[in-house]
Amino acid sequence: MMRKLPVNTLWFVCSIMLNALGNSFMIIANLGSAPWAAAGENLASILPFSIGVCIIFLNFCSFMLSYLMKIKFTFLMIIKSIVLTFVFGMLIDIFVYIHQIMYVPENIWIRCLYILIGLNLMAVAISIYFQSSTVYLPSDYLLKAFGKLMNNYTLGSIICTFIPLSISLPIIIFQKHVIGLGLGTILYLFGIGIFINQYNRWIVTHKEVPKQNIYLVK
Length: 218
What we know:
Elements: H1 7-29, H2 35-46, H3 51-68, H4 75-102, H5 108-132, H6 138-150, H7 153-175, H8 183-202, H9 214-217
Helix pairs in contact: 1-4, 1-5, 2-3, 2-7, 3-4, 3-6, 5-8, 6-7
């Protein structure tokens, strides 16, 4: 008889799917995406790869940078995070493809609605994600690395966010066409924390958040 999956595992799988779905809504809205997704969009515009594959590549770079910044990884953590990265990137591609064959909004108000849907889905996902797992995407480990380096996670978050933006901006300048950055990016940068804090009050996957997760859910 098939064993039941632990509740935390189900929460975790749900969070990854919701995060990818939220990213896909913002990508399809074409009014600005989350910084790492925006960097993936810009790389995809100059490379023969999909957005999801470019996001996987960016996460691998984040992993290497985190390692160089002395973040400690066990072999099992590395394997799990790599698998998570592949699944996350592929899910984004799948959801974007589904959007493209079903409906791509042109009306500005519907596109703005897509941004709000995407932000809320991602906030729900992140709230669940950091409560239900101790293995993260490499970009989250990079945030931890900068937080420790600066001894301040707010400042570390700003510096970490600058990395994908610094990838997007030269490509945008070179192509003379804005991709991935816009209203959605601004709302993500200044609003995602507010959304996450709200959903943290509403969604509790278990009574205590692991200590190593506290810096990510505040």
